[in-house]
Specification:
By secondary structure, the protein is an alpha/beta fold. It has helices spanning about 40-60, 85-95, 100-115, 130-145, 170-180, 225-235, 250-265, 295-300, 305-315, 325-345, 355-370, 375-385, 390-405, 410-420, 425-440, 445-460, and strands spanning about 5-10, 15, 25-30, 65-70, 125, 145-150, 155, 195-200, 220, 240-245, 270-275, 280, 285, 320, 460-465, 470-475. The structure holds adenosine monophosphate and zinc ion (ZN).
Length: about 475
């Protein structure tokens, strides 16, 4: 590939050039939502930035296959088996079955994604579809001696790995090894502090709604196994990019790597992309806090979801982002102003191929520099000011919007329509008639030119010849 796409890799702690396993192709995996509640706009910040990553890779020419899981089973908020089962808590809260809750919030998630122009990944797989795959991987881990049975559960033995804390610095590793959290009752079945459950048959949640038969008894999978299995099912044993929010780094992604590489016997995923958190004044926005912002709430307050998307693009994905309505108000004004400027462009003339290539390269370079979305957006402002014709400007904006997905062209067309009082079909008819009239006048066919003027007048459109060309106005 000609374009070097560079991205920060949490595994190497450096910005690296992406070199895919297979030339020209990217195998990409995204940790999907836990569907016990609506996604909050913090979760959606991660999905917006992952969407931009996928679209940027496609834009520069990669053939991307992206897979996402839906976490619809079990899932304790802690590996120590002390946390709450999130799906069960959701079902109790809403007096529904776990599967009804899962279905409802999966649909709600994709409806939010649609409003934010987040593309649906090529493959979306709920965890409950893959129980045989989980059982297979756990069996192999037991056979290879990376897992053990204790107290009715199957655990991953982290002491079998040379480097379990793959994402951490030496200092952090030491702290993680000795650090004991006061709020967590250690599970006495564990051989090592960081061991984690692969399969539960005995947990504090005896009324677990969904259970499956397994060689180790009736039960349900642990917290992390689904992402390893679902990604391998669709992307094979070597993956290019794995995505998630920074809270996924430990323990979720650390455990995913532990079990996947123990199972495969080789390196699994080369690049780890993590999006920093959206915070509000009280700290990290989180579902378990109960009080959180959703896309519907923003809409109820009169905000366009795409303004939230622009807000996310204006900041770098590796920086925490603080949400406030004040900033969203400013962003609304910026979006409207931008759309207005685009609506003022008229698509006449020929596309200037050289200018098009030049601005496209600038845009691409920012995307390739660790996904610098805010600078990529500024290329639009630069080109609006540039001395290039409107046709080229419009073509570039439509081209960039394949990645930015801010509906800029559509919003400008709507604004024009509202302002001129005619729909796109009538506008195109008017333009055609004006062109035809100009041709008739050139051939000195004034009768035809007058007939066209009268025809337009019949449809409520008055035309006037000015030094800049023929202009029109809706008069009735
Ligand atoms: P969950 O539905 O809780 O499994 O989370 C879905 C995704 O949102 C994961 O990739 C999380 O890392 C990410 N996430 C959770 N909270 C935030 C936040 N406040 N800001 C950005 N991303 C988040
Ligand atoms: Zn995951």
């Amino acid at each position: 590939m000609e374009n070097k796409f560079c991205i920060y890799n949490t595994l190497s702690r450096t910005v690296e050039t992406v070199i895919p396993n297979e030339d020209g192709k990217i195998a990409m995996y995204t940790c999907g939502p836990t569907v016990y509640h609506y996604a909050h706009i913090g979760n959606l910040r991660s999905y917006i930035m992952e969407d931009i990553l996928e679209k940027a890779l496609r834009y520069i020419g990669y053939d991307v296959k992206r897979v996402m899981n839906i976490t619809d089973v079990g899932h304790l908020s802690s590996d120590a088996d002390t946390g709450e089962d999130k799906m069960l808590a959701g079902a109790k809260r809403e007096h529904k079955t776990v599967m009804d809750v899962a279905r409802f919030y999966t649909d709600a998630f994709f409806s939010d994604c649609k409003k934010l122009n987040i593309k649906r990944p090529d493959v979306v797989e709920p965890a409950t579809n893959c129980i045989p795959e989980f059982i297979h991987m756990i069996s192999v881990l037991l056979e290879k001696g990376y897992a053990y049975q204790a107290g009715g559960n199957v655990y991953f033995d982290t002491s079998r790995l040379e480097d379990y804390f793959v994402f951490s610095s030496a200092v952090e590793k030491e702290q993680l090894q000795v650090g004991v959290r006061d709020d967590v009752d250690e599970d006495p079945n564990k051989r090592n502090k960081n061991d984690f459950v692969l399969w539960f048959t005995k947990s504090k949640f005896e009324d677990q709604a969904l259970k499956w038969e397994s060689p180790w008894g009736t039960g349900y999978p642990g917290w992390h196994i689904e992402c390893s299995c679902i990604s391998m099912k669709h992307l094979g044993g070597r993956m290019d990019i794995h995505c998630g929010g920074v809270d996924n780094i430990f323990p979720h992604h650390t455990n995913e790597i532990a079990q996947s590489e123990a199972y495969l016997g080789h390196k699994w995923c080369n690049y780890w992309f993590h999006v920093h958190h959206l915070n509000d004044k009280s700290g990290k926005m989180s579902k378990s806090k109960g009080d959180f912002l959703t896309v519907s709430l923003l809409e109820e307050k009169g905000y366009d979801p795409l303004v939230y998307r622009l807000f996310c693009l204006q900041s770098h994905y590796r920086k925490p982002l603080e949400f406030s309505y004040e900033v969203l108000d400013n962003m609304t004004a910026a979006y409207e102003k931008l759309v207005k400027r685009i609506a003022e462009l008229n698509g006449e003339g020929e596309t200037d191929a050289e200018a098009f290539a030049d601005y496209r390269n600038r845009f691409m370079e920012y995307l390739c520099s660790d996904l610098n979305t805010s600078m990529a957006v500024t290329v639009i402002y630069d080109l609006l000011k540039a001395d290039i014709n409107d046709k080229t400007k419009l073509a570039l904006i439509a081209d960039f919007d394949q990645v930015l997905s801010l509906n800029l062209t559509e919003a400008a067309a709507r604004l024009k329509e509202a302002g001129s009082g005619v729909d796109a079909e009538l506008e195109s008819y008017i333009k055609d008639r004006i062109a035809e009239r100009a041709a008739a006048k050139k051939e000195k066919d004034f009768a035809r030119a007058d007939a066209i003027r009268a025809e337009l007048l019949d449809r409520g459109i008055a035309i006037k010849d000015t030094r800049e060309g023929t202009v029109w106005e809706k008069i009735s």
